[in-house]
Amino acid sequence: MKWLGFLIHAAVFLALTLLTQIGGLVYLLAWALTFNIRRFLPRQFWRVVLFLTLYVGALFAAREMAPVYGRVPLPCLEGEQREFRMQSPIYCLLNRNYVRPEVRSMILDLAIHMNREFPGTITLGLDANFPFFDGFPLFPHLSHDDGRKLDLAFYYRDDKGYLPGVSASPVGYWAFAAAPDHLLCPAQRPWHSPRWDMAWFQQYNRGLSVDLDRTKAALNWLLAAGEAHGLEKIFLEPSLQKKWGISGGVVRFQGCNAARHDDHIHLQLGD
């Protein structure tokens, strides 16, 4: 039925747009260019091939065009910047590694400081922002829409010591370091609340411990030097603030209607 096909295409367009910002438009272009192709192989095959080809080109184009919108990419691969990289190439493939230049400057200064204080330390970035347009939402985040926000992974260790460039979770998120604080936030939440406990995901985590020396040192550097870079907020779960002795200044609780922040650090620069 034609209406079912339309709904499927609309759903794919919406999903690719929410995940990558540019993927939906690339999908529409690939669909239009392959609409009448039926020779040799199924049209769906050519559509996938063309989509992937166009998407790779769009990624490179976005990297070149992002400065027009006041955004620059964070390093994706180990060879680009020794002290810092995104936690996984998937963040770069999904176009979620863009920030304003002042955010990049701050985070690279932090990474260099951490490697100087703890040789061999690699600081890992998680979700940042899309390359284009203020106000465009970065699902499922509530505020990553202007290039001024960046999530950082905690530093991790096993029983033998620090593990450079490794996070407890395969995606960097949802390896929670504290029990849910139901005294602070009720156990029962609205269906639309992103304060997920992600119980089903815990089986995929590596069972590593937070490297407190490095994680606390990074937070203390941000508290001491972040203001010079325009740092306005650090979101960290109150239970960890108390446990780690990190409080005051720009350290805040993000509220009960936002995602938990005991699996990563949220940084936010002011206007």
From TrEMBL:
TM stretches of this protein: 6-33, 45-62
Keywords: Membrane, Transmembrane, Transmembrane helix
Lineage start: Bacteria, Pseudomonadati, Pseudomonadota, Alphaproteobacteria, Rhodospirillales
InterPro entries for the chain: Zn_M74/Hedgehog-like
Name this protein carries in UniProt: Penicillin-insensitive murein endopeptidase
Native source organism of the sequence: Aestuariispira insulae
